[in-house]
């Protein structure tokens, strides 16, 4: 049996995320975040300095990078078109593309250049003309590779930081990770989550209490875990809940899938990430699910049984020939949705009882629509 973990982890082998990025406790995350934010402001000014045109925004990180300038970019007359490239099966997901138009391609970073080469090739194939490429962080060798592809010229590329070696590139990219991690929504577009926004000030203690009560009511037997808050700004904290009884979720899979499918839920953890500010409070609910499942091949195509024989757009690992594969599009999403559905009513009731004004944004992967 193969297994798939859908979600996010912040601690690996006893080493917290901040340490993995090469920082120590003496490095203040607020200062790193402020430095990146000021630098991004300058980057955005360069981005919108020319004549307004469509912007192809490549990936979730690019979206996060300029999110606080979204209104400024739109007010300057630029229309943003998100595009996501999945390296696992070299597929693209997007809504409409500005076909026949000159555009700016925006990305957070260019390392080897291979990913951007595929993106540029895809846009060229669909008659979208990239006149400028803006990258916050670029490695010299990656740009050389892009230019050698013939898809773009060097004078069309603008980089806020251009590095000549791997060490310099990694040093800046680590700071970027700290900046991204200060946000409470997941960077991974394949993760399902609910985002709660409360128009009132609450302490971390009060939010933790609310989460504990709702989780107990929603998920049955659970174990609460302390989150890893190292490297986070003071306003942001995390906690987690391990679900101990999977029987109900295995029943759900039996209902969702055909009887010939072999499956098992191995692990369910729910991560909560909260931000408490002066006038607002917000937190995200992010299930992490591990499910084992058998799949079959039909010819050269990989078919997901739960998906009623459709070709799955996302695969965790490359697969050629016989054997088993795990489809994140079906198994992980089925259980993640059910976990969020179980928590939401109790959370809504608790917030309503406390007379707290709130709204909920349900975010799901594009490929599950």
Main sheet summary: 7 strands, antiparallel
Strand content: 25-35%
Poorly predicted regions: 1-15, 257-261, 296-302, 305-326
Q: Tell me the number of structural domains.
A: 2
- CATH C-level name of the largest domain: Alpha Beta
Query: How many helices in DSSP terms?
Result: 10
Structural class: alpha+beta
**Nearest-integer average pLDDT:** 82
Helix percentage range: 25-40%
Entry keywords:
6-stranded mixed beta sheet; Alpha-D-Glucose-1,6-Bisphosphate, Chain A, domain 4; Rossmann fold; 10 helices; alpha+beta; single chain; 369 residues; 17 strands
Structure description:
The structure is a single chain. The protein has 369 residues and is α+β, with helices and mostly antiparallel strands. It has 2 domains: 48-181, Rossmann fold; 187-368, Alpha-D-Glucose-1,6-Bisphosphate, Chain A, domain 4 (2-Layer Sandwich), CATH 3.30.530. Helix content is 34%, strand content 30%. It is built from 10 helices and 17 strands. Strands 1, 10, 11, 12, 13, 14 and 17 form a 7-stranded antiparallel beta sheet that branches. Strands 6-5-4-7-8-9 form a 6-stranded mixed beta sheet, sandwiched between helices. Helix 2 packs across helix 7 (166-181), helix 8 (204-219) crosses helix 10 and helix 9 (247-256) packs across helix 10. It starts with a strand and ends in a 6-residue tail after the last strand. The model is unreliable at 1-15, 257-261, 296-302 and 305-326 (pLDDT under 50).
């Amino acid at each position: 049996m193969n297994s798939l973990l859908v979600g996010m982890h912040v601690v690996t082998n006893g080493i917290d995320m901040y340490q993995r990025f090469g920082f120590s406790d003496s490095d203040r995350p607020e200062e790193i975040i402020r430095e990146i934010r000021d630098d991004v402001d300058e980057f955005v000014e360069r981005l919108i300095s020319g004549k307004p045109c469509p912007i192809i925004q490549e990936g979730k990180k690019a979206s996060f990078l300029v999110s606080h300038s979204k209104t400024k970019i739109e007010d300057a007359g630029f229309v943003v078109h998100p595009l996501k490239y999945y390296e696992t099966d070299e597929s693209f997901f997007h809504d409409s593309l500005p076909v026949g138009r000159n555009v700016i391609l925006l990305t957070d970073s260019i390392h080897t250049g291979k990913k951007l080469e595929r993106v540029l090739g895809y846009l060229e194939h669909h008659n979208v003309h990239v006149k400028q490429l803006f990258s916050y962080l670029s490695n010299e060798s990656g740009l050389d590779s892009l230019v050698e592809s013939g898809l773009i010229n060097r004078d069309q590329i603008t980089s806020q930081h251009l590095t000549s070696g791997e060490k310099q590139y990694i040093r800046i990219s680590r700071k970027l990770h700290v900046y991204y991690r200060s946000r409470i929504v997941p960077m991974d577009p394949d993760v399902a989550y609910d985002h709660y926004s409360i128009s009132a000030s609450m302490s971390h203690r009060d939010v933790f209490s609310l989460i504990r009560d709702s989780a107990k009511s929603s998920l049955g037997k659970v174990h609460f875990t302390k989150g890893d808050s190292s490297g986070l700004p003071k306003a942001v904290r995390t906690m987690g809940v391990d679900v101990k009884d999977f029987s109900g979720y295995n029943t759900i899979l039996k209902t969702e899938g055909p009887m010939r499918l072999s499956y098992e839920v191995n692990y369910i953890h729910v991560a909560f990430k909260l931000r408490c500010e002066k006038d607002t409070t917000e937190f995200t609910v992010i299930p992490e699910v591990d499910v084992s499942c058998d799949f079959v091949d039909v010819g050269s195509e990989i078919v997901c049984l739960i998906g009623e024989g459709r070709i799955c757009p996302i695969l965790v690992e490359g697969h050629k020939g016989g054997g088993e594969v795990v489809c994140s599009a079906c198994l992980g999403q089925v259980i993640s949705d059910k976990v969020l559905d179980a928590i939401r009513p109790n959370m809504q009731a608790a917030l309503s009882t406390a007379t707290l004004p709130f709204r909920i944004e349900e975010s799901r992967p594009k490929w599950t629509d």
